Amino acid sequence: MSGRFDKARHLAGRFFGHLRAEPPGPEDQSFVHEHLTAPCAEMFWSQSFPDQRHAVDVARRVSMTLPEDPGAVEAALVHDIGKREAGIGPVSRSIATILDAACLPMPTRMRTYRDHGRRGSVEIEEAGCGELAVLFARYHPGPAPEGIDPERWKVLLDADG
Ligand SMILES: [Fe+2]
What we know:
The chain is mainly alpha-helical. It contains ten helices and no strands.
């Protein structure tokens, strides 16, 4: 039961965060370019402002905990890249999450949103980002896949929560 409550709270936080979001400023822009190669940065900047803001916030938290792990920061910056393809706003995203939790059918754009991890991971791999970035996009918010340090994975999940 508390799992459901946590999910609803996470959803509400994300929803209001989305409405408040401003584009990353000059310091955050430098931070992004320090951690991403040109093709990955191009993908990053093609996201909506709220998604850019969210990714920078997650990546800043990761870099505080893992200052010597640029691969983890890169993974945080690109993990939600797949959401931009769906092209839907916070209300539809929330509805998609609820429909998915209830195992109900949903329109194509919402399905694209729901599948953002798998879709994004393909683009991330094609852009030449690191292995952790590909895997984290694909498998979050699930458990660490084999071969990945679970502690490192947990830092990413906690920063995204
Ligand atoms: Fe995220």
